[in-house]
Amino acid sequence: MCVSGGSGVQKIQSLDPELAKTLKANGFLLLYNLVESTMRNAIQAIFDELASSKVSFDSVKTELKIIVLQNLKACAPDKVHLKMSNISLDIITAGFDPERLFSGNVDGRLIRETANKYGFSSETKDKDDETKKPPNNGDKLLIVKTNRNNLAHGIQSFEEVGRNYYIE
């Protein structure tokens, strides 16, 4: 951390070790939030596109029909019917609730399953740089998810999580 010295000169001051542990643990919360919100926004974009393009239930692929029916099954019929004026179009989004998509459980495995379920690619290889080592199928996301859940549920303290990782 930079601080101003006596004659306006910047000096480097070391970070309090306890604060550093807390900041590192907070990094897991930030990373997890970014992953989960990205996944939620990706699924939301699919449903938004289907709605804006006025795609009918009959024309979507079977996998998506199953998702739509599962979404409806989770909704109260007295509320769903209010959202439908043209059932073949409105059925797709009537039962969709982005808040039910994920609940602290997003990791590499779930991203791959969700991508397969919705029909998009979970491939993360850098298409512009073939020399880069391919990713490990989201293995590190499991660490992020586990640390986030341990922090969120009070299983571990910020100090306990932060002490096991380097800032780099």
Walkthrough of the structure:
The chain has 168 residues and is mainly alpha-helical. Helices cover 54% and strands 4% of the residues. The protein is built from seven helices and two strands. The protein has helices spanning 17-52, 62-73, 77-80, 87-94, 108-118, 139-152, 158-162, and strands at residues 2-4, 10-12. A two-stranded antiparallel ribbon has the order 1-2. α1 (17-52) runs antiparallel to α4 (87-94), α1 packs across α6 (139-152) and α2 (62-73) packs across α4. The longest helix has 36 residues, at 17-52. The model has no long low-confidence stretch (mean pLDDT 86).
Counting DSSP E segments of at least 2 residues, the number of strands comes to 2
As laid out across the biggest beta sheet, the strand order is 1-2
State the secondary-structure class: mainly alpha
Shape: elongated
Q: Stretches where pLDDT falls below 50 for ≥5 residues?
A: none
Instruction: State the end-to-end distance.
Output: 15 Å
Helix content: 40-55%
How many domains in all? Answer: 1
Helical run tally: 7
Average predicted local confidence, pLDDT = 86
Order of helices and strands: EEHHHHHHH
* Rg, nearest Å: 22 Å
Q: Give the strand content.
A: under 5%
Main β sheet profile: 2 strands, antiparallel
